[in-house]
Design a protein that fits this description.
It is built from 21 helices and 16 strands. By secondary structure, the protein is α/β, with parallel strands linked by helices. It is globular and about 80 Å long. The chain binds beta-D-glucopyranuronic acid. Beta-D-glucopyranuronic acid binds next to loops.
């Protein structure tokens, strides 16, 4: 039990349950003409064989009750005979229901196309893994999200930027010849949750990925993923025409540059006919971009888009931009740059927007671009790898973070204009829609650096398919499939996971604080850091604390970032009377003596939150300890040790933060709250030469 099997463990179910399911799995009737159909068969044989003790026989026609019939109306005569209208489900949609074929009772798993049928098969297996009744099945699944993508920040060297689970799983040296079986397991895991795209390389891109040498390797990976409905995409460097094309410029309006991108796209599609497209980080954190030539982001995106358009490819252009030369609040810069470009992007461009206006912090308000660019398909970018949430070892279930953002109401078109409806196209009538998650995948046996981190990959995929799902329901599915259907275990572990996100907010950055981690490596607290090279990379820029008070004034008296939100939200965030406590110090600078709704002073409240975060981790640890013996010792022990690390580091965050803020305000701690055990100088003196995921 090293975690390799993820949520696709398929261990034998208790006999009483297996017996019931077996009567519904007497034979398997499905086409096996295409690679996707073969993958579907293989998964069902593997899953049913594992869960039920033995796999049903595969037959070409139904000849007994209890058969499982899988396919599309085009691929399977048995399915065609059912005359189900699956076209209404849309691409990737499927249904699972009881039916009668040739006089026999069957379960039909029917997709609109082969990949949809594969999705249906995974769904069916999940019902068994999670101990659901299958006596009355009426599953009807469809998705409005067309691109459900993982972004790998994998360098061609094998290093993963912000990777906490080992190295890149792409073995460029042995590709294209050696296809590591792990690639198939990667594809299975993604297909099982509906992920249909993967960007193979880091947004801080190396132009070499577009050379024939690498494209051949990319083609090999695309071939492995294709049966599972996964397209490959590449991050491209805007200066590639210079770096590998020998041109003097990468100016998007230069005809030679345009010809170069077109020829490059043609070359890629000749190798990979279903290539997905390009992801671009431009004019951001030192990356080249169209502004180097006095052009706009739209000029840049549209040239790439035009090269890809005839092939059906898309450009995912990132809105993560901010500049040290811009003296305006960093939180405002993306909106300021992109909002005026609404309507200027080609039809096959999506703007990929991080969930919050700064950078994947434990909590941020939603990014004001959501709802503000109705003419442009906005793609969500979440971070699954926990760069700012404790790396691999902290148990933080991200489902509630994702859900909080997706359910946030932008009010762009009145009440109920949620972020989910912006990105799924409903609000503004887009059919090209998308969501990306920065992957937490590496060469570790458990893929994600801990068993619990797998839940974040899983939750991301499930929400990418359906942004309306509840993170609690997803957590429960995951716990059952990954660990156990033992009801007491499930309940306690799900409660622990649901607590974990608020815990990390509390012990790292409560009440709207943000970006207080160590510079560069991002490990541990460093709220005191005011050193170079850029002010907007220093914690002091964000907390603005001094003897009198703390917080970033983004209200109308400060940077006025609130004005980037729709009027009802702007008013709510601008006013101290209505701002939610959770965002207080994000939008306001207040005195330490400020009276909170609780009646306590801000300082007392802050100390209590820091302490609460640590207490929550203690509680999570106690919960887990009480579950010893309920699962295998290997996975139990790893999580137990990691929770111990998390408790130490939560305590460190609390103590260092309190020591620092107290050094500014000189206030006593509220009664009963322990002082930091070390002086501030101790926390400031720590160094971390071992931090993963970062190259100075
Ligand atoms: C920041 C990361 C950095 C990424 C950047 C990005 O620290 O490594 O390159 O985001 O998203 O959070 O481009």
């Amino acid at each position: 039990e090293d975690g390799y099997d993820l949520w696709l463990r398929y261990r034998p179910l208790p006999e009483t349950q297996a017996a019931v399911y077996r009567s519904h799995a007497a034979q398997l009737v499905l086409p096996v003409a295409t690679p996707t159909q073969q993958a579907t068969r293989d998964e069902l044989l593997r899953g049913l064989g594992g869960l039920l003790g033995h796999a049903p026989a595969v037959a070409s026609a139904v000849d007994r009750d209890g058969a499982i019939v899988v396919g599309t109306p085009a691929s399977s005569p048995a399915v065609a005979a059912l005359k189900l209208d699956v076209r209404a489900l849309g691409r990737d949609g499927y249904l699972i229901r009881h039916a009668v074929v040739d006089g026999h009772a069957v379960i039909a798993i029917v997709g609109q196309d082969d990949v949809a049928a594969l999705y249906g098969a995974f769904h069916f297996l999940r019902l068994l893994q999670t101990a659901q009744s299958i006596d009355h099945l009426d599953v009807r699944e469809a998705t409005r999200m067309s691109l459900r993508v993982l972004d790998h920040w994998d360098d061609l060297s094998g290093h993963v930027e912000r990777g906490y689970a080992g190295n890149s799983i792409w073995d460029w040296q042995k590709l294209p010849d050696w296809l590591d079986p792990r690639y198939i397991d990667y594809a299975r895991a993604n297909a099982s949750i509906g992920i249909n795209g993967t960007v193979l390389n880091n947004v801080n891109a190396n132009a070499a990925i577009l050379t024939p040498l690498y494209l051949d390797k990319v083609k090999a990976l695309a071939g492995v993923f294709r049966p599972y409905g996964i397209r490959v995409y590449l991050s491209v460097k805007f200066s590639a025409p210079i770096e590998i094309g020998g041109l003097k410029t990468a100016d998007p309006l230069d005809p030679a540059v345009q010809r170069w991108w077109r020829a490059k796209a043609d070359e890629i599609y000749a190798l990979i006919p279903d290539f997905g497209g390009f992801l671009v980080k431009a004019n951001s954190e030192g990356q080249p971009g169209p502004q180097d030539y006095g052009r706009t982001h739209a000029d840049g995106a549209n040239v790439l888009a035009s090269a890809l358009a005839s092939h059906g490819g898309v450009v995912m252009w990132r809105a993560f931009v901010y500049s040290q030369h811009n003296t305006d609040d960093r939180a405002k810069q993306a909106y300021t740059e992109f909002k005026p470009l609404d309507g200027k992007f080609a039809a096959n461009v999506l703007l990929q927007v991080k969930n919050g206006p700064i950078d994947f912090q434990p909590r941020e308000p939603f990014n004001p671009l959501f709802g503000a660019m109705p003419k442009t398909p906005l793609m969500m970018e979440f971070q699954i790898t926990k760069e700012y949430l404790g790396f691999a070892t902290h148990l933080v279930y991200l489902g509630p973070l994702f859900e909080e953002v997706l359910r946030a109401d932008t009010h762009a078109k009145g009440n109920g204009s949620t972020v989910a409806k912006v990105i799924d196209g409903e609000l503004d009538g887009h059919t090209l829609t998308g969501i990306a998650g920065v992957a937490n995948i590496g060469t570790d046996r458990d893929w994600n650096g801990s068993d619990f981190n797998q839940a974040n990959w899983y939750a991301y995929g499930r929400l990418a398919w359906n942004p309306q799902l509840s993170s609690r329901v997803i957590a429960e599915e995951w716990v059952r499939a990954t660990f156990s259907n033992d009801e007491a275990f499930v309940k306690r572990v799900v409660d622990m996971m649901m607590l974990s996100r608020e815990a990390v907010v509390d012990y790292m950055t409560p009440l709207g604080l943000h970006h207080l981690m160590g510079k560069g490596h991002h490990y541990g607290p460093a709220p005191w850091d005011a050193s170079g090279p850029r002010a907007d990379w220093t914690p002091v820029y964000y907390h603005r604390a001094d003897h009198d008070g703390i917080g970033f004034d983004r209200s109308h008296t400060g940077s006025n970032a609130v004005a980037q939100y729709a009027p009802p939200i702007a008013a709510e965030f601008d006013d101290l009377k209505t701002i939610p406590d959770a965002y207080l110090l994000w939008f306001h600078h207040v005195p330490w003596s400020y009276r909170m709704r609780s009646g306590r002073t801000l300082w007392d409240e802050l100390v209590m939150h820091y302490t609460q975060g640590v207490d929550d981790v203690k509680q999570m640890r106690a919960t887990w300890q009480a579950l010893d013996g309920r699962i295998d010792a290997e996975r139990y022990r790893k999580a137990a040790v990691f929770l111990g690390i998390q408790e130490k580091e939560a305590q460190w965050w609390r103590d260092a933060s309190i020591a620092y803020f107290q050094s500014l305000n000189g206030l006593p701690l509220p009664a009963g709250y322990a002082p930091p055990p070390q002086p501030l100088s101790y926390y400031e003196s720590l160094s971390f030469p071992f931090v993963p995921g970062y190259r100075p």
